[in-house]
Write a structure and sequence with these properties.
With 384 residues, the chain is of the alpha/beta class. It has 2 domains: 115 residues, NAD(P)-binding Rossmann-like Domain (Rossmann fold, 3-Layer(aba) Sandwich), CATH 3.40.50; 254 residues, Dihydrodipicolinate Reductase, domain 2 (2-Layer Sandwich), CATH 3.30.360.10. Helices cover 31% and strands 24% of the residues.
């Protein structure tokens, strides 16, 4: 009889050495998962392997996928490579964790969904915001009816890392990241998280998108995500064809309404995701800048604030918290907890249905993005 593997016996390979690749490596190691290989173009893989103490470096993602010392492939490369890398990893018989978006369009995501189904491998999309303890607790409260029927949801995801016209990253280029940028890069996190909490899909959207910097100046040489500006760099101008910010109205399959503001030119907001959920009994709201606190609103009583890992907070995140109250669990911990859920499923001990985002969830979010772009162009509601 074949026994299921333990988390510590599973081995990971990571494709991509930019900002998010090393985040995956760190989170995996905190779980006891061995990272046996890393991949990137040119000398980047060898440099990252030496820096991160990873034994194998590959310049071709197919070599990493074929490596017998890799059980799970993590894809953190630019968006345009997600589909081909996912398909190659599945053909090699590997489980996959892919950064969002799953692919560049729904034609590609549909191929990945079918390939994952046929391969019978665990396939996850890294919507890590699901694994903030407050998010998991809110999901529990909605499922238990504590908030009542959900009337509407509002919120935002705001950053300022592209505030200046000299700020640059491959995500600014449609050929690398897709036609949508702020919405696809961070707005999808908000939409996936709220859909996860409500247990409801987004069915239609009305979008107004805008580009503040119609022209930007691109450094002559690549820079990393969130890298600080270098005054010694030389720049070349280019026309911007992706969104800097936008506002979106949403309708959900449970009848709730929503509104979302997204911006990557919001000075002072480094990485702020916020949502407020208004139910027929009470409301709840949360912000990633104060991740330990969950707030509740009442009509006929005082409002309340609960701190993570206390009785007032609740136990909806049981199994996905490792530290006592007052010891903040934040952004890096969401990766660890997401991977804990994914690797538990690979080991045959995960929850059903899974808490992590699947290939189907990734397909849904790309379908929402396509509807948002269609709505913006047509100045009308668009069905997902």
């Amino acid at each position: 009889m074949k026994t299921s593997p333990s988390l510590s016996s599973l081995r990971a390979g990571v494709i991509g050495t930019g900002f998010i690749g090393p985040v995956h490596v760190e989170a995996l190691r905190r779980l006891g998962v061995t990272v046996t290989a890393i991949c990137d173009v040119g000398d980047l893989a060898a440099q990252a392997a030496a820096r991160l103490k990873i034994p194998r470096a590959f310049a071709d993602h197919r070599q990493l996928a074929a490596c017998p010392e890799v059980d799970v492939v993590h894809i953190t490369a630019p968006n345009r490579f997600h589909c081909q890398m996912s398909l190659a990893a599945l053909r090699a018989g590997k489980h996959v964790v892919c950064e969002k978006p799953l692919a560049m369009n729904t034609r590609e995501t549909a191929r990945v969904v079918e390939a994952a189904r046929a391969a019978r491998r665990v396939f996850a999309v890294n919507y890590n915001v699901r694994f903030y303890p407050a998010v998991l607790q809110l999901r529990r409260l909605v499922r238990q009816g504590i908030l009542g029927d959900i009337i509407h949801v509002n919120g935002s995801y705001l950053q300022d890392w592209l505030f200046k016209d000299t700020d640059y990253n491959w995500r600014l280029l449609p050929a690398e990241g897709g036609r949508l940028r702020a919405v696809a890069d961070i707005g999808t996190h908000w939409m996936d998280t709220v859909s996860f909490i409500l247990g409801a899909r987004i069915t239609s959207v009305f979008a107004d998108l805008a580009t503040w910097h119609k022209q930007r100046r691109r450094p002559l040489g690549e820079v990393q995500t969130f890298a600080r500006a270098d005054t010694r760099l030389r720049y070349a101008p280019y026309k911007v064809q992706t969104d800097d910010f936008g506002s979106i109205l949403l309708r959900f399959s449970n009848g709730a309404r929503g509104n979302l503001a997204v911006s990557q030119v919001a000075a002072g907001r480094k990485n702020c995701i916020r949502f407020e959920i208004y139910g027929s009994k009470k409301s709840a709201w949360w912000c990633s800048e104060t991740p330990e606190q969950l707030h509740f609103g009442n009509r006929d009583a005082a409002n309340e604030t609960a701190v993570r890992a206390t009785p007032a907070f609740g136990d909806g995140a049981a199994g996905f918290m490792d530290y006592p109250p007052g010891h903040v669990e934040g952004f890096p911990d969401t990766f660890k907890m997401n991977f804990r859920a994914i690797y538990s499923a690979i080991a045959g001990a995960g929850s059903t249905p899974p808490l992590f985002a699947t290939a189907r969830d990734g397909h849904q979010e790309v379908a929402v993005c396509e509807a948002i772009l269609r709505s913006h162009r047509q100045r009308a509601w668009a069905t997902v």
